[in-house]
Write a structure and sequence with these properties.
heterodimer; A: Uridine Diphospho-n-acetylenolpyruvylglucosamine Reductase, domain 2; Uridine Diphospho-n-acetylenolpyruvylglucosamine Reductase, domain 3; Enolase-like, domain 1; 3 domains; 3-stranded parallel beta sheet; globular; B: 155 residues; alpha+beta; DNA polymerase, domain 1; 5 helices
Chain lengths: 291, 155
């Protein structure tokens, strides 16, 4: 029988209240959103918070909207809501690709976007998707909000820049012309974590890749990104050889480790192949040639 | 901590430890043993109940998180002579063998049909993809849900 250790519980009624509670309890507290990462960790004693700050009542953090040139996602948005969001899919098909293969429909009803990011599992899918889209994370603390690039958000496995008295409140994704995106994942069975996965976003000017974003997960990529492959793509023509070469560069620069999901060389193979496939899909979508 | 939960239309007030899982509140405190406690790791789906309007794996929700909310378990789906079409479908199509996964399967099926009254077999499989039948009786579970869609859908 797996049950969490004894813990105190506080219900936050607003973002300000949550931050006040977090500041009061410090590192002894953990934010409880969907709980679908935290509660299993607590059962295994991998997490042993003394206090849980339940933010499920803060409905202000549950939104997906378009303001100006950005898509803004409140961090209490659950996976199912992101998957159902027409505006999210319209501007960032990668989000729907990724959400379709995150856990299962029942878990997606309760697991949240913010919870997934803050859990910072090195095999987490949205971390790679947001890295590809070059998103910005908005973090609220006692002294107000600050913004951090998705590329600087994770500081290591299960670690982020969010401080003990801070709360991740929003992910903001810039919408730029000529954009297309896609996500490709290989997992052992339905609903499982990836053996390897890649997300790609491209912004085309005619046939040329003006900018590219590549996110990788489960393969030991720095900050969930393939910066060297992005650099290579910038200014190149969006043709098959270029996309294939970018896949090779991405694979050369990640550091997968063998585990129960697969050997390192297979994961490196996936990093290459899935990067190329995700780029191919992103380019086709940017050209309006794929749904 | 005091929680008020409305389960299958009936209000319960209980004093619980914050660490108590919803599945244990239902089974041990309220005596509603229709929801099964399976893998404990949110993989198997035997413990699926509805929290307000959506299915959730109740081994991964604290009872305090259900405070002020409505819970629907298999006991609330139907019983005796007034079975939900999903329950009748499982009976008609031999949708259960040992029965352990059945309550969770039926609650997810009910939710699917409420949102998609005429699903394809593939859509049924996707909906129950987070639930495990260790008898491996998936074919008949899918048939049972499709039967329910044809014979009374909304329940």
């Amino acid at each position: 029988m797996q049950v969490p250790a004894q813990v105190e519980y506080e219900k936050a009624t607003s973002v300000e209240h949550a931050v006040t509670l977090l500041a009061r309890y410090g590192p002894a507290a953990r934010v409880l959103a969907g709980g679908h990462s935290l509660i299993p960790m607590m059962k295994l004693r991998l997490a042993q918070p003394e206090v849980l700050i339940d933010i499920n009542g803060i409905t202000d953090l549950c939104y997906i909207n378009l303001t100006g040139t950005h898509l803004r996602i409140g961090t209490l948005t659950c996976h199912a809501q992101l998957l159902d969001s027409q505006i999210a899919g319209e501007h960032f098909a990668i989000l729907h690709d990724a959400e379709r293969v995150i856990a299962d429909p029942v878990v997606r009803n309760w697991g949240t976007v913010g919870g997934s990011l803050c859990q910072a599992d090195p095999s987490e899918d949205l971390s790679a998707a947001f890295a590809a889209m070059k998103g910005t994370m908005v973090i609220r603390g006692p002294d107000g909000s600050r913004e951090v690039s998705a590329r600087e958000f994770h500081t290591g496995p299960y670690e982020t820049v969010v401080g003990p008295s801070e709360l991740l409140t929003e992910i903001s994704l810039p919408i730029r012309p000529g954009g297309g995106s896609g996500y490709q994942k290989v997992s052992r069975r339905a609903g499982d974590w990836p053996v390897g996965a890649a997300g790609a976003a491209v912004w085309l000017t005619g046939d040329v890749i003006a900018d590219a974003g590549i996110g990788l997960t489960a393969v030991g990529a720095n900050h969930f990104a393939a910066a060297e492959a992005e650099e290579y793509l910038r200014g190149k023509k969006a043709i098959e050889e270029t996309l294939a070469r970018a896949g090779e560069i991405a694979a050369e620069n990640c550091r997968p480790v063998a585990d129960q999901r697969g050997p390192a060389d297979y994961k490196r193979h996936l990093a290459r192949e899935l990067t190329t496939r995700a780029l191919r899909l992103a380019v086709a979508r940017a050209r309006g040639q794929a749904a | 901590m005091k929680v008020t939960v409305t389960v299958n239309g009936r209000e319960y007030v209980r004093d619980v430890e914050p660490r108590l899982l919803l599945i244990h509140l239902l089974r041990d405190e309220l005596g509603l043993t229709g929801s099964h406690w399976g893998c404990d790791t949110s993989n198997c789906g035997a413990c699926v109940v509805w929290l307000d309007e959506t299915p959730v794996k109740s081994c991964t929700v604290l009872a305090v998180m259900a405070d002020g909310r409505r819970v629907t378990t298999v006991e609330g789906l139907g019983s005796g002579d007034s079975l939900d079409p999903v329950q009748r479908g499982f009976a008609e199509c031999h949708g259960l063998q040992c029965g352990f996964c059945t309550p969770g399967m039926m609650l997810t099926a009910r939710w699917l049909l409420d949102h998609n009254p005429d699903p394809s077999a593939a859509e049924v499989r996707e909906a129950i993809s987070g639930q495990i039948c260790r008898c491996t009786g998936y074919e008949n579970i899918v048939k049972a849900v499709l039967w329910a869609a044809k014979n009374g859908g909304q329940g």
